[in-house]
TrEMBL record:
<dbReference type="GO" id="GO:0048029">
    <property type="term" value="F:monosaccharide binding"/>
</dbReference>
<comment type="pathway">
    <text>Carbohydrate degradation; glycolysis; D-glyceraldehyde 3-phosphate and glycerone phosphate from D-glucose: step 2/4.</text>
</comment>
<dbReference type="InterPro" id="IPR018189">
    <property type="entry name" value="Phosphoglucose_isomerase_CS"/>
</dbReference>
<dbReference type="InterPro" id="IPR046348">
    <property type="entry name" value="SIS_dom_sf"/>
</dbReference>
<dbReference type="Pfam" id="PF00342">
    <property type="entry name" value="PGI"/>
</dbReference>
<dbReference type="GO" id="GO:0006096">
    <property type="term" value="P:glycolytic process"/>
</dbReference>
<dbReference type="InterPro" id="IPR035482">
    <property type="entry name" value="SIS_PGI_2"/>
</dbReference>
<dbReference type="GO" id="GO:0006094">
    <property type="term" value="P:gluconeogenesis"/>
</dbReference>
<feature type="active site">
    <location>
        <position position="375"/>
    </location>
</feature>
<dbReference type="InterPro" id="IPR023096">
    <property type="entry name" value="G6P_Isomerase_C"/>
</dbReference>
<protein>
    <recommendedName>
        <fullName>Glucose-6-phosphate isomerase</fullName>
        <ecNumber>5.3.1.9</ecNumber>
    </recommendedName>
</protein>
<dbReference type="InterPro" id="IPR035476">
    <property type="entry name" value="SIS_PGI_1"/>
</dbReference>
<dbReference type="GO" id="GO:0097367">
    <property type="term" value="F:carbohydrate derivative binding"/>
</dbReference>
<dbReference type="GO" id="GO:0004347">
    <property type="term" value="F:glucose-6-phosphate isomerase activity"/>
</dbReference>
<dbReference type="InterPro" id="IPR001672">
    <property type="entry name" value="G6P_Isomerase"/>
</dbReference>
<comment type="similarity">
    <text>Belongs to the GPI family.</text>
</comment>
<keyword id="KW-0324">Glycolysis</keyword>
């Protein structure tokens, strides 16, 4: 079957009467909740509250076959250059030691870097590696942006506890307010600075690196600076030019994409903050999800099934965004990580062959932890004119002793999913208002505003506990979902040419801000003039 025919079959499944109904599917199939709940690598994922049914799934499996999703997965594991526009392999699975991924060269490289990371992190944590003044490092500052920030910062926020030492901090934005906020809590004598940049050329990261290097030099003296620096990069000449001794450079290869790099040397801040055992457990969780992705049959393959949900909701049901709602405050940076992972990977309009695709691709990802989200944007999910699928992430066991708080948290997460599904019709709203003593006029006026349409899709992911293994598995699940969606949509999920133009244009505009020739575009020139007038 051609991919066009297969996609047409998916659209035909969506064109059936009531194809978007969800409540009715529970009525038809009492076993739906269990039949549509899947387990892998310790995670439980409930897809029952989507409008997927056997017909839709059959069409989606047909599309997976036509687009060769699993063949692409296997090519990825073999280390073929599936990132064709950059001529690169995509081997982040090799970073977690997943058997059958990459070749012996990659395996050896990963093992060597991991050993160096372990020795360094352990040395710092145990006080064998000290700052220039002989003090222990109490703080680690990771300077990086995008994939060199978001993944590690998200994991650190999730797993590094208040009692962990060294503390880890993340500086991403070139806006020096970010640095000003961080530096007031940092003592240069006790701060280890990691410059995290795959390319070691990213303008913002290098500007921040120079700023922080100057801060170290002013406090400790130029000769002492290198004792406080390390680089995480694929660019050995660049790190040398910056004055970082080779022993303090932790490398990786260009087969690691930025948004997939937290498992590589880019994760050194995590090894420092969590300790080696917990960092290894994070890799282990991802490895378990890799094994599932590589070996589970299609019908149970969670990354593939989650990709089906997104494709069904987006292409077949016409939704354009998705809300990620972790009911765990420690996962507050997960939506930001997923924004890069999914939107940088899947925000593409050109297919693998170079022609424009004729179907929609990746949508908007946004989110906030619950219950906070319930008191901000979730109104729109319940009653807005646009359908926005939701993704609830629940954690069964908290790491605090406040059982009552956790029960409230869980109850709210479960209730939101149920409310989106069930909705509330006019007769039941009217009955409730009558019971509350409202008169007929009030009931007539308010009922339409208080109706919930229901049948709004959601997925629930359940973690036993927010520990390194579960989080590793969760992140890997999303990574593999992205790979599947790229294949299903026929796009390259592993490049990011769309970030280039803005970077290029910033060069001459910066020169204009520094007193050079004015910008050529009239709108930019006018705004620059307005800025300069306000700065005068
Ligand atoms: O690690 P680097 O090379 O500094 O790049 C940082 C980020 O910039 C991007 O290239 C986008 O500008 C991301 O893909 C990447 O994660």
């Amino acid at each position: 079957m051609s991919t066009d025919t297969a996609l047409a079959a998916v659209m035909a499944a969506a064109a059936r009467p009531h194809a978007g109904a969800i409540r009715a599917r529970f009525a038809e199939d009492p076993a739906r909740a269990t039949r549509f709940t899947f387990r892998a690598a310790g995670l439980t994922v409930d897809l029952s509250r989507t409008s997927l049914d056997d017909t839709a799934l059959a069409a989606l499996h047909g599309l997976a076959e036509a687009t060769g999703v699993l063949a692409r997965r296997d090519a990825m594991a073999r280390g073929e250059a599936i990132n064709a526009t950059e001529g690169r392999a995509v081997l982040h699975m090799a970073l977690r030691g997943t058997p059958g991924v990459g070749g012996s060269a990659e395996t050896a490289q990963v093992a060597e870097t991991l050993a160096r990371m372990r020795d360094f992190a352990t040395g710092v944590r145990e006080g064998a590696i000290l700052g220039a003044t002989g003090e222990r490092f109490t703080d680690v500052l990771n300077i990086g942006i995008g994939g060199s920030d978001l993944g590690p910062a998200m994991v650190a926020r999730a797993l590094v506890g208040p009692g962990d030492l060294p503390r880890v901090h993340y500086l991403a934005n070139v806006d020096a307010h970010a640095w000003a906020a961080l530096r007031q809590n940092l003592d240069p004598a006790r701060t280890l600075v990691l410059i995290a940049s795959k390319t070691f050329t990213t303008q913002e990261t290098m500007a921040n690196a120079r700023l922080v290097r100057g801060w170290l030099a002013a406090a400790l003296g130029e000769a002492q600076v290198s004792a406080h620096l390390a680089a995480l990069s694929t660019n050995a000449p660049g790190t040398a030019e910056f004055g970082i001794p080779p022993a303090r450079v932790f490398g990786f290869e260009n087969w690691v994409g930025g948004r997939f790099s937290l498992w590589s040397a880019i994760g050194l801040s995590l090894a420092l903050g969590l300790g080696w055992e917990r960092f290894e457990a994070l890799l282990g969780g991802a490895r378990a999800m890799d094994a599932h992705f590589l070996h589970a049959p299609s019908a149970e393959n969670l990354p593939l099934l989650l990709a089906f949900v997104d494709l069904w909701n987006g292409n077949a049901m016409g939704t354009t965004s998705r809300a990620v709602l972790p009911y765990d405050e420690r996962l507050c940076r997960l939506p930001a990580h997923l924004q890069q992972l999914e939107m940088e990977s899947l925000g593409k309009r050109v297919g693998l062959g170079g022609a424009l695709v004729s179907h929609a691709t990746g949508g908007v990802v946004f989110g906030e932890p619950g219950t906070n989200a319930q008191h901000s944007f979730i109104q729109m999910l319940h009653q807005g004119t646009r359908v926005i699928p939701a993704e609830f992430i629940l954690v069964a066991n908290p790491d605090h002793a406040e059982a009552a708080s956790h029960r409230i948290l869980l109850a709210n997460g479960l209730a939101q999913a149920e409310a989106l599904l069930q909705g509330r019709d006019a007769p039941s709203v009217a009955a409730e208002m009558r019971a509350a003593g409202r008169d007929a006029a009030q009931i007539a006026a308010l009922v339409p505003h208080r109706v919930f349409p229901g049948d709004r899709p959601s997925v629930t992911l359940l973690l036993p506990r927010l520990d390194p293994a579960s989080l590793g598995a969760l992140i890997a699940l999303y990574e593999h979902k992205v790979a599947c969606l790229g294949a299903l949509w026929g796009i390259n999920a592993f490049d990011q040419w769309g970030v280039e133009l803005g970077k290029q244009l910033a060069g001459p505009i910066l020169a204009a801000l520094e007193g050079g020739a004015p910008p050529t575009h009239p709108a930019t020139a006018a705004m620059l003039a307005a800025i300069e007038a306000l700065q005068a």
